[in-house]
Amino acid sequence: QVQLVESGGGLVQAGGSLRLSCAASGSTFSIKFIGWFPQAPGKEREFVAAIRWNGQYTYYGDSVRGRFTISTDTAKNTVLLQMNLLKPEDTAVYYCAAGSKYACGSLYRDPNIYDYWGQGTQVTVSS
Fold first, then answer.
1. Helix %, strand %, coil % of the chain (to 5)
2. Rounded to the nearest 5 degrees, what angle is found at the Cα of 9, between the Cα atoms of 48 and 2?
3. What is the C-alpha to C-alpha distance for residues 61 and 74, in angstroms, rounded to an integer?
4. Do the beta carbons of residue 93 and residue 120 sit within 8 Å?
5. Can you tell me whether residue 64 is helix, strand or coil?
């Protein structure tokens, strides 16, 4: 089993920045990739970014490319999501998720390929 804990959410003005963390514990040797999925009230979870656990491949959703950066600190079993130029429409609960099977490219967009999910952290962007 893998446990995921998100942190770093909060309230920020439009144009500002936040950095989210996803800390993994348990059977981390089984992790192949980590993704981030924000979910706004009344909407489905939306893919924004994913990274292979070794940090050597990243993939971004169209709405965040150029604004968000995903990275790993495997020594700390942590994945970071640096979010810049935030917009009110980025407001959501941000979930990180871990997959244990190999995948690449657009497959990362599918929440069904992820095996473990965190509890989420709230991000609110005011206008």
1. 15, 50, 40
2. 70
3. 23
4. yes
5. coil
The amino acid present at 47, given as its one-letter code, is F
User: Residues of the chain with pLDDT > 70: what percent?
Assistant: 100
Task: Report the alpha-carbon distance of residue 98 to residue 53 in Å, rounded.
Answer: 9
Q: How many CB atoms lie within 10 A of CB 80?
A: 17
pLDDT band for position 15 (50/70/90)? Answer: very high
Q: Which two tokens stand for residue 107?
A: 């497959």
Query: CA-CA distance, 51 to 73, in Å (whole number)?
Result: 11
What is the CA 27 to chain-centroid distance, rounded?
Answer: 19
* pLDDT of residue 104 exceeding 90: no
Dihedral sign for Cα 64, 20, 70, 4, please. negative
Angle at 13 (CA atoms; ends 11, 18), nearest 5 degrees: 60
Residues linked to residue 125 through DSSP beta bridges, in sequence order: 12
pLDDT of residue 37: 98
Name the DSSP letter for residue 107: G
